[in-house]
Amino acid sequence: MAPGGLPSTGMGTETGAIIAGPRATKDTGLTRLRSAGLPLGLAAIVLVAWQITVTVGHIPPVILPSPISIGKYIYERYDILLMHAVPTTLESAAGFAIATLLGIGLAIIITYSEVAREALYPNLVFFQLIPKIALAPLFIIWLGIGSQSRIAFAVFIAFFPVVISTAAGFASVDKSMLRLCRALTANEWQIFSSVRFPAALPYIFSGMKIAVTLAIIGVIIGEFITAQAGLGYLIIFATARADTEISMAAIVVLCICGLLLYGLVALAESVANRFYSAENP
């Protein structure tokens, strides 16, 4: 009954839902537009300020080329940049994939074995404290000047965040949920696949997002030392010739490759969340 003793028609609820639907959609669209527009707007402001500074200040290209000249070089010599981008991207992806598998595997061992946790965890922290770049020449000596040394060095740099994040995710599972699963006679594999792993997904992907950037850094460091191809090699080659324009163009392409790899990780996270949401509605 509506106020005053009149029968309710239900129109208020339906009208509210109709109004709330478009409004919610509009708010979501504004949020997405803002999340994309703010970083792009800031980047545009920085590029315009950079261009004005170089033009007004008459800064020579050998010191700092303008964004327009860098973009022009990328457009004209995209074939050379692409040729060097391919090995860097593939080696970074390989190092990241191995680091992810190794990190998750070590996290599982640390989670399920107290002895392994006490033995491994302090040593993992110790290795993380070692200045990584100081070990790069040793990887060249051990594994040669090929891609194996660069991939191994990328793995060495990138696996630690995955281990720590994944172990934290496994440890964050509600203890009462684990007790309930065991009370229902679920075995350890069922508990892991249905409870621990889904609960740890945000932690795992957080570590992976850090690891993918570190893997690229590891490959670039290796290319600085021995490679005959790759964006790192191109940067060193251009720097030796004092050709700052080529170096900056290679750095821009390297950022694009990094964004693509990072985007793939974010896409995988979205797919995994949707999959487990569908499995456990």
From TrEMBL:
One of its GO terms (biological process) is transmembrane transport. It comes from the Bacteria. It is a multi-pass membrane protein. Keywords: Cell membrane, Membrane, Transmembrane, Transmembrane helix, Transport. The chain crosses the membrane at residues 36-59, 93-112, 124-145, 151-173, 210-240, 246-267. PROSITE patterns: ABC_TM1. SUPFAM superfamilies: MetI-like. One of its GO terms (cellular component) is plasma membrane. Residues 85-265 form the ABC transmembrane type-1 domain. It is found in: Cell membrane. Coiled coil: none annotated. Belongs to the binding-protein-dependent transport system permease family. This is NitT/TauT family transport system permease protein. It comes from Bradyrhizobium erythrophlei.
